[in-house]
């Protein structure tokens, strides 16, 4: 699949979803249910995964410190900025894509295979407004919150590992001296864009599924792969844009 097609299909789906939602309205109750489905059921995966990631980050920092500077605490502020701006939103979004992307793609592909989507259209419903819009809203709200919680979990685990495993002041890995407003803005843009893209990529894969159980499995795999690769590409695009603008 070309890059144009990779991003083009979700963009077209987003345009159709916005148009259908403006015409038919947004089912807010279903949107709240999807916030729970995406955020509530992913929070422990994201926080535990990011906690392990923070521990690994400090272990790598300790290895580098032994070779170059001799004191792992010196690397703390630089690693904290890297975690806030780059690694926190990117890794949290990937973890969310692995669970929520799979869940969305499996649910929508099952509905497509069982002709429930066609039944919805025959009963004057619109799959874009009724099925896709609540998931996109949940992603736009839930993924930034998950990225925030994941970054906090990684920071706390990094500080704890530095303090108790390597015997240095763990507060160095919570030192914000290099973090500014542009770092926070970049992290938010990455999280919000990934939050919108994950359900769109899953919906593209799920709504085109036809056949039986095999089609559901293929759509689920395609949804997770597309959502994960999309998050990495969004992370790269936002980082390059900020570099070009010297922000």
Assembly state here? single chain
Question: What is the mean predicted local confidence, pLDDT?
Answer: 91
**% residues in beta strands:** under 5%
In whole angstroms, how far apart are the ends? 32 Å
Shape: elongated
Number of strands: 0
Helix proportion of residues, in percent?
Answer: over 70%
Tally of contiguous helical segments: 8
Class computed from helices, strands and strand pairing: mainly alpha
Our Rg estimate from Cα atoms comes to 20 Å
Task: Give the low-confidence spans.
Answer: none
List SSEs in N-to-C order: HHHHHHHH
SSE layout:
Elements: H1 3-24, H2 28-40, H3 43-68, H4 76-113, H5 116-122, H6 127-164, H7 181-207, H8 213-244
Gist of the model:
82% of the residues lie in helices and 0% in strands. With 247 residues, the chain is mostly helical.
Throw out a few tags for this protein.
247 residues; elongated; mainly alpha; single chain
Care to describe what's here?
This protein is an all-alpha fold and 247 residues long. The chain has one domain (3-17, 35-245). It is built from eight helices and no strands. It has helices at 3-24, 28-40, 43-68, 76-113, 116-122, 127-164, 181-207, 213-244. Helix 1 (3-24) crosses helix 7 (181-207) and helix 6 packs across helix 7 (181-207). The protein is elongated and about 70 Å long. The model has no long low-confidence stretch (mean pLDDT 91). The chain crosses the membrane at residues 44-61, 136-166, 187-205, 225-245. One of its GO terms (molecular function) is phospholipid transporter activity. InterPro entries: Permease_MalE (IPR030802). It holds the Pfam family MlaE. This is ABC-type transport system protein.
